[in-house]
Amino acid sequence: MAKVIISVVTADQARESIELKLSVRDTGIGIPEDQQAHIFEAFSQADATTTRKFGGTGLGLAISERLIAMMAERIWVESEIGTGSTFHLVLRLDVSPAPTEPEPDATTHLQDLRILVVDDNATSRRVLGDYLPRWGLRATFAEGDLKRYEL
User: Fold this and answer.
1) What residues make up the domain containing 27?
2) How many other C-beta atoms are found inside a 10 Å radius of the C-beta of residue 150?
3) Could you tell me if 89 and 114 lie in one domain?
4) pTM (whole model) above 0.70
5) Could you read off the pLDDT of 74-124 as tens digits, one per residue?
6) Nearest CA-CA partner of 125 in 149, 145, 107
7) Are residues 89 and 122 both part of a single domain?
8) d(Cα 103, Cα 99) in Å, to the nearest integer?
9) Which CATH number do you get for residue 89?
10) Does some domain include residue 77?
11) What are the C-alpha distances in Å from 138 to residues 28, 109, 145?
12) Domain-embedded: residue 103
């Protein structure tokens, strides 16, 4: 089963700005090295036959690359055939001043609420297992596929 993993890390931070490095990794078919330079061109794909099999018009990366270039930033890809691809993006963003009043905790009403999480994806269960207790929820996890249950 293919996976997509998104990560964001702080690459650099100053008082007025922050530089973020975003990565989107997939476990797909990969992109041959000789085709990697062309995937950011409009209507260009590494292999035209993959359009029929995997979908896509060839515009998404071209549009992304142009938007990122307008912000004076960069995007690039690392890929290996049969293993997948990782698209990297570095953005420098202005930092807003801190709010004068702290925002109320929106999770207060969730304290000690019991929930059942059913998911066939172990990564999703692990991520939810990290977040739900922080919100005060008492979660029980089960592996399963909701498609087989009628709701």
Assistant:
1) 4-94
2) 5
3) no
4) no
5) 788 889 898 888 989 888 888 888 776 767 777 788 888 999 998 888 888
6) 145
7) no
8) 8
9) 3.30.565.10
10) yes
11) 35, 13, 21
12) no
